[in-house]
């Protein structure tokens, strides 16, 4: 392939790689390895068809997401066409996680976070959602580390109270 194709693929990966991986992980129910394989195959297809895709890397997102979705569907169909492996019969009666519980939990936590004071919510977002240390959170919010610790403690207590009151 031409050098332009490699530059094109690098640009596609740079612009869309993270979003494609997130989308693929959602479709594969959190299977990181399968998601990475699907994104890699998607980028290979973009590379193979770079000369036929009459668009810039920035405008490719819909096509890329369609390729990811179709690869997931094809993989699912291929697994369904295979004969059952040993032990699959005993698993047949078990429920299959579909992501609904995770989505509902996420919405409940979001709603509960909205009930917190903004200062407390900011500390929790930095500490737990952005996965920053106490020191990093303090630097980011420009407050002392002791304040981060006390706000975290108070916010978690308030969050726990809100979440258990709804049950």
Label this structure with key terms:
Arc Repressor Mutant, subunit A; 167 residues; single chain; mainly alpha
Counting H and I runs of at least 4 residues, what is the number of helices?
A: 8
Total individual domains = 2
Multimer state? single chain
* SSE order, one letter for each helix or strand: HHHHHHHH
Mean pLDDT level:
82
Which stretches are low in confidence, meaning pLDDT under 50 for 5 or more residues running? none
Q: Radius of gyration over alpha carbons? A: 22 Å
Helix content: over 70%
Number of strands: 0
First-last Cα distance: 59 Å
Give me the secondary-structure category. Answer: mainly alpha
DSSP strand (E) fraction? under 5%
Shape: flat
Main β-sheet description: none
List the helices and strands and how they pair.
Blueprint: H1 3-27, H2 32-48, H3 61-81, H4 88-91, H5 100-114, H6 118-129, H7 134-141, H8 145-165
Helix pairs in contact: 1-2, 1-3, 2-3, 6-7, 6-8, 7-8
């Amino acid at each position: 392939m031409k050098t332009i194709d490699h530059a094109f693929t690098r640009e596609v990966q740079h612009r869309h790689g993270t979003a494609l991986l997130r989308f693929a992980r959602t479709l594969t129910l959190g299977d990181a390895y399968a998601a990475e394989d699907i994104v890699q195959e998607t980028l290979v297809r973009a590379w193979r068809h770079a000369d036929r895709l009459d668009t810039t890397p920035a405008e490719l997102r819909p096509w890329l997401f369609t390729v990811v979705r179709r690869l997931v569907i094809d993989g699912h169909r291929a697994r369904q066409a295979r004969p059952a492996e040993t032990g699959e019969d005993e698993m047949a009666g078990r429920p299959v996680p579909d992501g609904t519980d995770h989505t509902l939990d996420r919405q409940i936590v979001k709603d509960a976070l909205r009930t917190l004071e903004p200062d407390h919510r900011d500390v929790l977002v930095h500490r737990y959602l952005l996965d920053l240390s106490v020191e990093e959170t303090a630097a980011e919010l420009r407050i002392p580390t002791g304040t981060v610790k006390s706000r975290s403690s108070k916010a978690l207590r308030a969050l726990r109270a809100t979440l258990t009151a709804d049950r």
